[in-house]
Specification:
single chain; 7-stranded mixed beta sheet
Length: 128
């Protein structure tokens, strides 16, 4: 069974930074792209970022482009979301997810239904 565990969330002031990590169990981590989503109170979960299996390409949502970056370390089974210049509207529970399909394909998936495994989420709160 694949398990995803996020860490790194917390409370930060507007303009600050946080670094989220997601560690994935299993030997097939490097076969898959990875994605990040978030869900704010009262809102639907939305796509934030995705990264190819090799880490050579990322797709970033317009709402966070230029502030968030995704990276991965396949040797450590870890994917990271670096969040800079945080805004109060970035407050949400952040989830990492693994897509249903393995492989190095583009475009990267942005829909929840394209993902099979999810972490439990980590809370990010940005104060104004």
């Amino acid at each position: 069974q694949v398990q995803l565990v996020e860490s790194g969330g917390g409370l930060v002031q507007a303009g600050g930074s946080l670094r989220l990590s997601c560690t994935v169990s299993g030997r097939t981590f490097s076969w898959y792209a990875m994605g990040w989503f978030r869900q704010a109170p009262g809102k639907e979960r939305e796509f934030v970022a995705a990264i190819t299996w090799s880490g050579d390409h990322t797709d970033i949502a317009d709402s966070v482009k230029g502030r968030f970056t995704a990276s991965r370390d396949n040797a450590k089974n870890t994917v990271t979301l670096q969040m800079n210049s945080l805004k109060p509207e970035d407050t949400a529970v952040y989830y990492c997810a693994r897509p249903k399909n393995a492989g190095n394909y583009k475009p990267l998936p942005r829909l929840e239904l394209d993902y099979e495994y999810w972490g439990q989420g980590t809370q990010v709160t940005v104060s104004s």
